Amino acid sequence: MNAQVSLTVSDLQGWYGESKALHGMTFEVGAGEVVTLLGRNGAGKTTTLRAIMGLLRKKKGEIRFDGEDVAGRMPEYIARRGIAYCPEERGIFASLTVEENLFLPPVIAQGGMALEDIYALFPNIAERRNSQGTKLSGGEQQMLAIARILRTGANLLLLDEPTEGLAPVIVQQIGAVIRKLKERGFTVLLVEQNFRFASKLADRHYVVEHGRVIDTLTAADVAGNLDRIQSYLKV
Amino acid sequence: MTRAAADNIVEVRGLTKRFHGFAAVSNVDLDVRRRSVHALIGPNGAGKTTFFNLITKVHQPSEGSIRFNGDDITNEDPAHVARRGMVRSFQISAIFPRMTVAENVRIALQRPKGISFHFWRSDSSLSVLDDRVDELLAAVGLEQMRDKTAGGLPYGRKRALEFATTLALDPELLLLDEPTSGLGTEDVERIAALIRSVSANRTIIMVEHNLSIVARLADRITVLARGKILAEGTYSEVSTDPRVIEAYIGGDE
Amino acid sequence: MMAFLGISPQLLFGQLLIGLINGVFYAMMSLGVAIIFGMLRIGNFVHGAQYMLGAFGAWYLLHLPDLFPGLGLPSLGYWWALALVPVAVGLIGAFMERVFIRRVYELEHAYGLLLTVGLTMVIEGLFNVGYGAAGQRYDIPATLKGGVNLGFMFLPYYRLWVIAAGLFVCALTWYIVERTKLGAYLRAATENPNLVRAFGINVPRMLMLTYAFGVGLAGLAGVMAAPIYQVSPQMGQSIIITIFAVVVIGGMGSISGAIFTGLMLGMIEGLTKVFWPQASTTVIFVIMVLVLILRPAGLFGKETASVHAANISMARPNSFLENGRLWLPILSGVGVVLPFLVYPVFGMKIMCFALFACAYNLIFGYVGLLAFGHAAFFGSSAYIAAFTAASWGFPPEFAVLSGMTVATVMGAVFGWLAIRRQGLYFAMITLALAQLVYFYALQAPWTHGEDGIQSVPRGYLFGFIDLEDTMNMYYFVLAVFLIGFAAIYRIGRSPFGQILKSIRENELRAISLGYSTDRFKLLAFTLSAMFAGLAGATKAIVFQIASLADLYFTTSADALLMTLIGGVGTLLGPIVGAIVVVAMQKEFATLGAWVVVVQGAAFVLCVLFLRKGVVGTFEDWLATRSESKRNAAGYTADLAAKGAE
């Protein structure tokens, strides 16, 4: 594991109204790592990301980012500290063009990707920059949702099921993108159900069930433990 | 109507729903056999809840048709569909929070009596329903709480109350949207037992994430992925289907 | 063409020009209302008052030397006003957002509207105190005096300027919202504020700036309007209701839609003035009705996400304060002895308004629909009762029944129209429909315009009880009030009332149980209109007059205020509220125009600090007290049990 820690989540509990979704999530993400939260539907993975981002109001526990506890902070503060969020539903704005969507998140620090680099990474987006955001295909919308958080200079990317509902060829492209992001030094916390996809990218996997981490595997553990992983995720 | 149709309580053909050009459900054909427990499963974003909202007419389909008991209900409004005997539950407990537990159930029981527009009568005229209310509350283990305000119940009890209210209509077809989500183990077991006990003489369609519940209760399972049907069959059939495993765990690149 | 059938082009184009000018103002105003609604989800009723502030701002700048003699301030003319006043009004808007409006974002939409209604009453009331009903003159700036003769008509330069400048401002606003980065933030935050916050954008600050911008637009419109219309405290009052109708017609979906709808309706209004002058004040409301029938979502409306009825009832069902079987005899007893304690006329006034508020509570409290046009039922019924008693010699009981019947039918029709749209739109539609009735009564010959129907005979009840006798009259009103109160209580506690309650608590669930909730809402609305009519007709007989005030939106606001002060959805709240409001009106009667200010302040304070109302708060207090008593008793019992061991 890297010496430098980017994010530490300790004993995080969270509620949607009265329904408790997180029962003490504990995990950490080292700087420059790609880490996944794996688990079935309803395990609490998305809720965890929302809690980190400050979008889940009712919560207890500690969320440390670059040493600072941000658990009680507003989303706009957390974003400006350097965490960027790509939601599961993608959140492409229908009333904005592709380019407006891309430029919406404000630059919060030096070191974000340059526009040319982003367009090089996502050629489709460059082509369709003047279309309405939601006129894009599902895969293009996903690309746009990732692309728009790369400009800002945020270092920790929270990606919520980027492969959801996408065709295999698009899933491959997204995998390639995440690999390039890792090379560029981004830290990525990835929520996934698609284990085969995640296993090729991540340094570490946390298996989540009923709102807590029930198992941890490093990339090296994966090959020898396929059955164990299957039992967590399969039908 | 064909012979086969009589055995199917629901027949869905070519059902499609597009939001902003994105097809959340696309070209789904589905038959649900009468008196079966039919589960809909699939990864997030597969279109399960959208499908549910389509057949209960909360959403209007973009294309396709829905038949219930042989009648085309594609263009009916949700209240009508409910009156035909197709009643749904919700993901988030749907109760009337500031009414008592007994009143919650009574709201449902009162509908078939045909007095719901009677604004001149006293509500004591509803007391004839009390026995049935108590029966239903007993069935879900809420008889001790009949006069409590529903909003004050613990979450698991609210789900049970919602269940009792739904059952009060004695629906021919019961649609359960994630009946066990957000519940503790004990409550999950209670709800599972309830589903089993009421499934005897009616049809149930449920969306459920808890696969052990699905394995135990469902006669038939439809797996949705990306808005389309991926597989259909019994639990042992779908759970070994490579396409299903791929959808859940991910395919090879 | 019809246009030349005896109509001079001078008149035609003249009116079209006036229509276009009105249209420019409608466009600028509805633009602000639509932007504010889109971002803040607030129905900004105070927009009209903010427009009036703009006009007064211009007037103040002109009269600086007179207002502050000795300071040597210069008189600042139109162009200064155009630059300074919108900014100043915008700042006032920012201040209002910060201090008041921000507090209701997380509450039901209804409170946003109520709060801005209260603020409107305070602002307009204060200006009324200062300047009365008379308008102030504001001259056209010297540079824009005169005009050009186009041959077929004379075109004053100032009007040309207003049209050009107004269109430019609309286009600029469109550009800012649709084409700039700032506008992209605005559009994105309108769609999904949480995600925008998660990108690091300070959405609360954006909300404040958006409100300030929308309000600034109203201020600008006010400055531009000052030389055309008279600068008066009332100038914003009727325009805001028209603007709400414009917004209902256009739908709040698009900026260009708001601009187009505003301009178009102004022109149609102008044309109507040429061909059918009497209808010109109502034409926009009639168009609204047609649009609601033919295209319920509005011309440019996108179907809004389903907005459920607002659950704002403050009643605790088990409280003894909610037990009608207990309170009906108590109220009867109090009612019988009351005329020996207070002036009977005062008691009758309270009972009429208490019944009105109880009727209003039936739709607002029991069902959770923010109706804002109950003056239409109260006032129409008053007019019908007064007219049938005065002109046709109806005995009082038939006069009252006639009024009630008309109110009921109107309730059914208005309800049928308004229920097509949800949430804030429902309030806007009922308000606009009531305004339609108001303008009708202003012009129809049988209502006698500003005078109203006066000297209505009280007559003989059942042919032999002389109602000219105050005590007879009083006990008749008491009987009417008690019957109404009992009937409304029964409706609330009937099988029908149970369904109303379930709709208020969780409409989606009620639908999924098979109830076509719109039908229940419509019946409740009709019943509510019927009892409002009963109150209005009785009032007309008691006070022997039906006047325009009965139909004006302030009467609707009174019903709302009474219900709010007393406690929305409670049994006794409307009565308590009526006592408070009627007493307040009596106490402050000597203060004249201040009454409105006090009422507006009461509105604001209730929305911010006393949402449960007097009765609701009391019921809460009783419940908490009995709870803690029970706990204490349990604790003592525990101790006793332990001691026994």
UniProtKB/TrEMBL annotation, chain A:
This is Amino acid/amide ABC transporter ATP-binding protein 2 (HAAT family). GO terms for biological process: L-amino acid transport. The keyword Transport applies. Residues 7-235 form the ABC transporter domain. Gene3D superfamilies: P-loop containing nucleotide triphosphate hydrolases. One of its GO terms (molecular function) is ATP hydrolysis activity. Coiled coil: none annotated.
TrEMBL record, chain B:
CDD domains: ABC_Mj1267_LivG_branched. Pfam families: ABC_tran, BCA_ABC_TP_C. Residues 10-251 form the ABC transporter domain. It comes from the Bacteria. Keywords: ATP-binding, Nucleotide-binding, Transport. Transmembrane segments: none annotated. GO terms for molecular function: ATP binding; ATP hydrolysis activity. InterPro entries: AAA+_ATPase, ABC_AA/LPS_Transport, ABC_transporter-like_ATP-bd, BCA_ABC_TP_C, P-loop_NTPase. One of its GO terms (cellular component) is plasma membrane. This is Amino acid/amide ABC transporter ATP-binding protein 1 (HAAT family). It comes from Microvirga subterranea.
Automatic annotation (TrEMBL), chain C:
Pfam families: BPD_transp_2. InterPro entries: ABC_transp_permease, LivM-like. Signal peptide: none annotated. GO terms for cellular component: plasma membrane. It comes from the Bacteria. Keywords: Cell membrane, Membrane, Transmembrane, Transmembrane helix. Coiled coil: none annotated. It is found in: Cell membrane. CDD domains: TM_PBP1_LivH_like, TM_PBP1_LivM_like. It is a multi-pass membrane protein. The chain crosses the membrane at residues 12-37, 44-62, 77-101, 113-134, 154-177, 207-229, 235-263, 275-294, 326-346, 353-378, 398-417, 424-441, 473-492, 522-547, 559-584, 591-610. GO terms for molecular function: branched-chain amino acid transmembrane transporter activity. This is Branched-chain amino acid transport system permease protein.
